[in-house]
Amino acid sequence: MNSDQQEYIVIKAKDNGVQVIGLTRGQDTKFHHTEKLDKGEVLIVQFTDHTSAMKIRGKATILTKHGSIDTDV
């Protein structure tokens, strides 16, 4: 994936203990990275050759080039 095509998203924790889990690309999807955020913390993440998806647990706001999403937890 060309660095010009890599997409960034911003995750802002609205509560303590928000988990961000990166999932791999390829034939077998696996967890490859986790981060834990506390209320008010912001994480800027990027989809890469190795990361095809992200799972977010907890109360958070996710900002993408497509708009803003709030979790319902």
Provide a descriptive summary of the structure in words.
The structure is a single chain. The protein has no helices and seven strands. It is globular and about 35 Å long. It has strands spanning 8-13, 18-24, 31-37, 42-46, 51-57, 60-64, 67-70. The chain is mainly β. A hairpin with a 6-residue loop joins strand 2 (18-24) and strand 3. The model has no long low-confidence stretch (mean pLDDT 86). The N and C termini lie far apart (33 Å). The strands form two sheets. The chain has a four-stranded antiparallel beta sheet, with no helix packed on it. The protein has a three-stranded antiparallel beta sheet with strand order 3-2-5, with no helix packed on it.
Span from first to last CA?
A: 33 Å
- Could you report the average pLDDT, rounded to the nearest whole number? 86
Radius of gyration: 12 Å
Q: Are there runs of 5+ residues with pLDDT below 50, and where?
A: none
Which strand order do you get reading across the main beta sheet?
4-1-6-7
Quickly give the structural class.
mainly beta
Shape: globular
Largest sheet: 4 strands, antiparallel
Percentage of helical residues?
under 10%
* Quaternary: single chain
* Number of DSSP helical runs: 0
**What proportion of the residues form beta strands (DSSP E)?**
over 45%
Query: How many distinct beta strands?
Result: 7
Helix-strand pattern, N to C?
EEEEEEE
